[in-house]
Amino acid sequence: MKKILSISLALLTSILILSACGKKNVDEHKTISTPKPTLSDALNTSGISLEKYEQIKYTNQQLNGGDSSKKIMSILGKPSSSKETKLTNNDPATQYTWQMGGNAQLQYIFAIIYKDKVLSKGFQQNTNSKIVSKAKIKALNNSMSFEAVKDKLGAPLSEQVSDGVAFMTYQTDKNNHACNLTFSNNKLSKIQFVTLSSN
Questions:
Q1: DSSP letter for each residue of 72-97
Q2: CB-neighbour burial class of residue 32 (10 A; exposed 0-12, middle 13-18, buried 19+)
């Protein structure tokens, strides 16, 4: 049985231009559902990995730096799919997805391209990540950076990152429970406990 958490493009693009700040919030009992992963084009993306994902550089809010679509394709190969989308300011962007299937540890990697720059990137694992207790997560504080939390808790089940905003999800038990962590300006700003769907 796989536990899968959807990385929502709508959620990501709706906050890319916004910055959150203030007190850390803790929300309980949210439920997140997700479609089943497709197995199509798996052979085209058989070389994707978290190591290659880490090589992808995203641009800052002024569109300085960051990889081009050509660069990320040289790293990850041909994407499984692409679709046109719009940012919150209605500017057009493209989401590329490199999808795995079956029993691969990494389910997919995605990147959102805006003006031929990687605006954001993310990944979702197929298999369970290390269990992290709720108590350990609640002990985190607002002064902790994205990198410090990742060092403390280990690799997440999923993550999404862009300049100024980032998300990570960790499993908190073997019963479909997890926690979403939101970062604003590289500082932890929100903790939300959720229920993963079972497929």
A1: HHHHH-S-SEEEEEE-TT--EEEEEE
A2: middle
For the chain, give the longest Cα–Cα distance: 45
Contacts of range 78-85, beta carbons closer than 8 Å, 24 or more positions apart:
78/44, 78/45, 79/44, 79/45, 80/38, 80/40, 80/41, 80/42, 80/44, 80/45, 80/108, 81/41, 85/9, 85/13, 85/112
Distance of CA 152 to the CA centre of its chain: 18
Q: What is the pLDDT of residues 101-148, one digit of tens each?
A: 666 678 899 999 999 999 999 999 876 667 899 999 999 988 899 999
Beta strands at 81-86 and 92-99: parallel, antiparallel or unpaired: antiparallel
pTM for this entry: 0.74
Question: What digits encode the pLDDT tens for the residues 9-62?
Answer: 333 443 443 333 333 444 444 444 444 444 333 334 456 788 899 999 999 989
Q: Which residues pair with 17 in a beta bridge?
A: none
Chain centre to alpha carbon of residue 44: 21
Q: Which residue has the tokens 């691969």?
A: 104
Pairwise CA distance, residues 179 & 133, whole Å: 10
